[in-house]
Amino acid sequence: MKRSAILILLLLALLSACAASEETPTFTIENQGAPVSYPPGILMIGEKAFFVEADGVSFCGLTSCLAEKDGQLLYFADDSSLRRFYAGFVTIDGDLYYAPEDGFALCAAREEVMQIGNALYAFDADCRVMELTAGVQELFGSLYYVAEDGTEISIPPEGPLLTDDGLYCANADGTLATDLTSGYLSFGSDGRYTSGSDTLDRQVEDLLTAAQTGGTDPIEDFRLCYSYIRDHYRYLSMEHYPAGTDDWAQASAETFFELGKGNCYCWAAAQMYCARRLGIQAYVVAGWEDNRTNDHAWVMAEIDGTEYLFDAELEYAIGIPGEMFMVTPDDGAYRGYSYFFP
Fold first, then answer.
1. Taking residues 186-209, what's their average pLDDT?
2. Nearest 10 degrees: Cα torsion 193, 275, 181, 256
3. What is the DSSP code (8-state) at residue 277?
4. CATH code (residue 94)
5. Confidence band (pLDDT; 50, 70, 90) for 33?
6. Is 265:286 a contact under the CB 8 Å cutoff?
7. Domain boundary among 69, 84, 107
8. How far is Cα 162 from Cα 152, in angstroms, rounded to an integer?
9. What residues pair up with 73 in beta bridges, in sequence order?
């Protein structure tokens, strides 16, 4: 009889253990049988963090997913614990996010551009870092310059910004200026440089293509334009203009590009607009060369605080390549040629 009782007790204990193992675990912590209430929000239990629901008793049961809780984007692991990340960029299910210093809530930036360190990043409506096409584009109502990796938005130096698809002007915050005149450079409503003439802008772009420019070094690209003009255009006797004037520049440049030839005023104007398109603060001068009876026009530009002279027409006339590109009075009084300014 005693042996039978012991067997029965052992069997009951085994059944009780099996039943306990099949119970679904809960996230309610009990203290002597009574539920303990916690402030709603994040709760640390040992090395894990959980999200306490509004009732203060039940814990979040989400597993292996992103969830929005009280305006925060949180990531829960398989055991319902809140995943903690090192501060910085994290990849979840193939998407890139940013974790702030606490490591729990992912970046709350939504449909905006935010500065992280020294760079800007764009976030979509789900807080993901957006993959963008490199170049200039509009983001949430402002123009930005996107770096080559497609995510980081660079903060270029304030001022003219030469890119593969045009010239822009950067503000101090990394956005691009619109409807702005900076020195001799003007920028339209789309942020791109414009001469003020659609016809002339197209002509200049055609010349830049023909001269095989396309880098981001304005001086080297202008050298290519300068050489192309010198080697592919011809002189044509045309109207002269009073010394000290420059209101002839646009019409003279358009005529030069259309005809493929022109006088020194046309040559100077064409060079000037190519230089400006590359971000160089260039201007034309109507004065004299050799003596005050010899009307002449050329290009000047201030680069890094120094005034330089450019004269492709004179170079074409004397037949010495490179003689009058980017010279200063220190270069033998413009390399032996006399320029008289009005």
1. 96
2. -80
3. H
4. 2.10.270.10
5. low
6. yes
7. 107
8. 18
9. 68, 106
The last residue of one of the domains, among 63, 84, 107, is 107
* Closest C-alpha among 184, 185, 155 to residue 172: 155
Name residue 334's beta-bridge partners. Answer: none
Residue 157 belongs to a domain:
no
Task: Determine the Cα–Cα distance for residues 281 and 245; give it in Å rounded to an integer.
Answer: 18
CA gap 330, 310 in Å, rounded: 14
Q: What radius of gyration do the chain's Cα atoms show?
A: 36
Residues 6+ apart with CB under 8 A from 10: none
Q: Tell me the two tokens of residue 148.
A: 């080559």
263-277 mean pLDDT? 98
Banded model confidence at residue 172, pLDDT cuts 50, 70, 90? confident
Number of domains comprising the chain: 2
Q: Does the residue 181 lie in any domain? A: no
For residue 71, the model assigns a pLDDT of 80
Token pair belonging to 313: 């027409």
Going by C-alpha positions, the residue among 181, 177, 214, 211 that lies closest to residue 196 is: 181
Tell me the mean pLDDT in the region 98-114: 89
- The Cα 213–Cα 224 span in angstroms is 7
- Please report the pLDDT score of residue 174 as a whole number: 79
Residue with token string 């040992």: 46
**In contact, 85 and 76? CB cutoff 8 Å:** no
Specify the length of the chain in residues: 342
How far apart are the C-alpha atoms of 43 and 261, rounded to whole Å?
79
Domain that holds residue 41: 25-107
Q: Which two tokens stand for residue 277?
A: 């398109």
**Which residue, chain included where needed, has tokens 């160089």?**
280
